[in-house]
Write a structure and sequence with these properties.
Blueprint (H helix, E strand, L loop, with lengths): L1 E6 L4 H5 L13 H13 L7 E4 L3 H14 L3 E3 L17 H15 L13 H16 L5 E6 L1 H11 L5 H6 L7 E7 L3 E8 L23
Parallel strand pairs: 1-4, 2-3, 2-4
Antiparallel strand pairs: 1-5, 5-6
Helix pairs in contact: 2-3, 4-6
Length: 219
């Protein structure tokens, strides 16, 4: 199976550098809406047969233009939502950003017992994200698009893909509407075939001024 993990478009919290992971979350900025509208054309060559989004509003808004373009229903699926920031929720300081990212990349590297301050540990994250990917795989389709979240995508792919690791994910940011493509299955394992950390519509849709807490690399 081929899965296109697409990070959601820009939100006001991304611009402000807030760790904003709670349900239902913010909508998109004007730039985020433009990023979402660029997705169908950018993915024209991909034969997407099914489309999934997380329970948070920003992923559903990001998926909407692709759903309309392909005549697909967006399936809202639990488990692919962002990694809960716990006690760091709503923080915008550099130390909180660093603690959050160091925690999730520790999980990617195998330290699953480490907990987010005031939150859950890596075992809980992988249990729910693995379960969601299992449900996506059971759709029986050959290609699916999954609109999810920066830290969640990077952490899961780094831990589950055979050809990259946590260091790679930490060093390769995933901007709003950046795409990571994996192939494989829950039984046979996964490999990354493309990691494009830039906005799907190109650098014209990149906001260099945003202090993006969950998309940027540690440091």
């Amino acid at each position: 199976m081929r899965i296109l993990f697409i990070r959601h478009g820009q939100t006001p919290s991304n611009v402000r550098g807030l760790l904003d992971t709670a349900y239902p979350g913010p909508g998109l900025t004007a730039l985020g809406t433009r990023q979402a509208r660029a997705i169908p054309r950018a993915l024209r060559a991909e034969k997407i047969e099914e489309l999934f989004a997380s329970t948070l509003i920003r992923t559903q808004l990001t998926a909407e233009p692709l759903a309309v373009d392909r005549g697909l229903d967006t399936r809202i699926i639990d488990g692919i939502h962002e990694i809960d920031a716990g006690a760091l929720e709503g923080h915008s300081d550099h130390e909180s950003h660093l603690t959050y990212l160091e925690t999730v990349f520790a999980w990617a590297g195998g330290d699953l017992s480490r907990s987010m301050p005031g939150g859950y540990d890596g075992h809980e994250f992988f249990e729910r994200f693995d379960g969601a990917v299992e449900r996506v795989s059971q759709s029986g389709m050959s290609t699916a698009a999954v609109v999810s979240h920066g830290a969640a995508i990077r952490t899961w792919v780094a831990a589950r893909a055979a050809n990259i690791d946590g260091d790679y994910a930490a060093e390769h940011p995933l901007s709003n509407t950046g795409v990571v493509i994996v192939t494989g299955s829950p039984v046979d394992g996964w490999n990354v075939v493309e990691w494009d950390g830039d906005p799907i519509g190109g650098h014209d849709l990149f906001d260099a001024s945003a202090d993006d807490a969950t998309g940027e690399a540690v440091g």
